[in-house]
Amino acid sequence: MTKEAYGELMKQINSGKFVFTGELEPVKTTNFDEVIEGARILKNHVAAINITDNPTAFGYMNALMPSYMIQEKAGVEAVYQMTTRDRNRLALISDVLAAGALGIKNILALTGDHTTVGDTPQAKPVFDLDSATFVYMLRKIIDEGLDLNNNEIENPPKFNIGIAAAPNADPLEPELLKIQRKVELGVDFIQTQCVYSVEQAKNFLKAASYLKTPILIGIAPFKSISMMKWMVKFVPGIRVPEEIQETLHKAKKTGGKQAVYEANIEIFGEMLRGVRSTTNAAGIHAMAIGFEWIIPKIIERAGL
Amino acid sequence: MIIVQQKPLKEIFEMTKNLKKLLIVGCDGCSSVIQVGGERQANILKSLLEINRKVKGEKDPSAKAISILRQCDRQIVTTALDPIIKDYDAIVSLSCGVGVQTIADLFQSTLIIPAIDTKFLGMHDTKADKFHEMCTACGECILFETGGVCPLTRCAKSLLNGPCGGQANGRCEVGGWKNDCAWILIFNRLKERNRLDLFTKFRLPKDYRVSRHPRELSFKAENEEATEA
């Protein structure tokens, strides 16, 4: 079933085009320049760019302002990520209404990593809502123009709602049922955590096909060997095949940083081509925080 | 059961500093059952306080250790302490925060010193000799829907619609992969009982008014209360 499109991203998904989304991180700064620059690099290659909301519970600039700024200054649509970790339902509706006023078209509804994994582990975690109850709240706002207590909203905002999925979740069945709960409430698209092989993407897409919701497969090239090691060790559900790890290690040894970048382009370009040609993914969600320039090169290498 | 733990001795010594006559009161309720705050522990603490004073060359406190049935019961506390409290400068309580406050409320002119930190409502896993938090007393039990596993307590994020992406192989990333993911436990239990419909069910945002502090409860009928008032 085609969902009503409120912005460019959903329009492109609905058209059946293989879409790309990017991701930018507002970091601990009062400066918009880096985010806007990142958006400009990605602009011609993606339908929209996610702006992360205190990712892995690090206290950064809020995601709404940069979401607005990349739309205004770089002319590229934002996917405003919102977690329920730091805001109760009152604070959430405040930001949702502000997002509507600022012309945001997409919200990615997330629970958010736990405060204890971030840079301020002493913080009181909120989790008044979870990603499912947040989707429920968003649907009421969008479809009925009402808040959770059925109070009317003047000029209710319209958003396309995205959710996240963990394609390598083990066990996978509860992950799928959890997504199903949210799909039944009404979500427009799914962006996954990163996969590291066409096989991983294929398996998840097959298992999730019954949900009949457009799925953008997440990819995340490695900025460095140390980043790869960290991800393998600490990020749940990340499975990097030995082959990839070896190739990158070898590249680092023989050609240093530049060779690692080139190996990334090769590996992920190939993976992207595989996902495009052998699965029914709606597109790719590409995460390359701090080296966004690599995304266009990977897309080019994939011949897309 | 209310799970408690004795405070670091340094802290207890600091709070009791310069106090001459101390009544150390154990509790035969929860804190005694887990061997933290019963009569035996009250006596041990008394000895430790005395030794500490001796080592530091301070004057011996005149301390007495007793234990009472339940420090959370006003009647019991009154009966046990009322006749003797005037003989002491301070009470050192080995009960949970409820007991400490009951005594503080009943004897407002006596200094009360908690020797215990109240940790959580939990279960004793005797095999592993560990205590596990099981209930947050949220005021609205959903254990029927969740296979007898409380997600509000045992999920680090208290999710009503889990699991989140922070689990791997049924373990939770919060706390370094040591704890079970409550939502995977819930899934397994409900699957075993053929009730995955309860798992997939969407649970609405919780009404946190039911756990708004301070809570109170009366089993009297409303008209009874009205007559009393």
Distance between the termini of chain B: 34 Å
Strand order of the largest sheet of chain B: 3-2-4-5
Q: How helix-rich are the residues of chain B, as a percent range?
A: 25-40%
Low-confidence runs of at least 5 consecutive residues of chain B: none
Give the C-level CATH assignment of chain A: Alpha Beta
Major sheet characteristics of chain A:
8 strands, parallel, barrel
Q: How many distinct folded domains of chain B?
A: 2
Helix % of chain A is 40-55%
Q: What count of helical segments of chain A does DSSP give?
A: 10
CATH architecture of chain A: Alpha-Beta Barrel
Overall outline of chain B:
globular
Question: Mean pLDDT of chain B, nearest integer?
Answer: 94
User: Could you tell me how far the N terminus lies from the C terminus of chain A, measured between alpha carbons in angstroms?
Assistant: 26 Å
Q: Look at the helices and sheets of chain B and give the structural class.
A: alpha/beta
Q: With helices defined by DSSP (H or I, 4 residues minimum), what is the helix count of chain B?
A: 9
Largest sheet report of chain B: 4 strands, parallel
Low-pLDDT residue intervals, each spanning 5 or more residues of chain A: none
Q: Strand order within the widest sheet of chain A?
A: 1-2-3-4-5-6-7-8
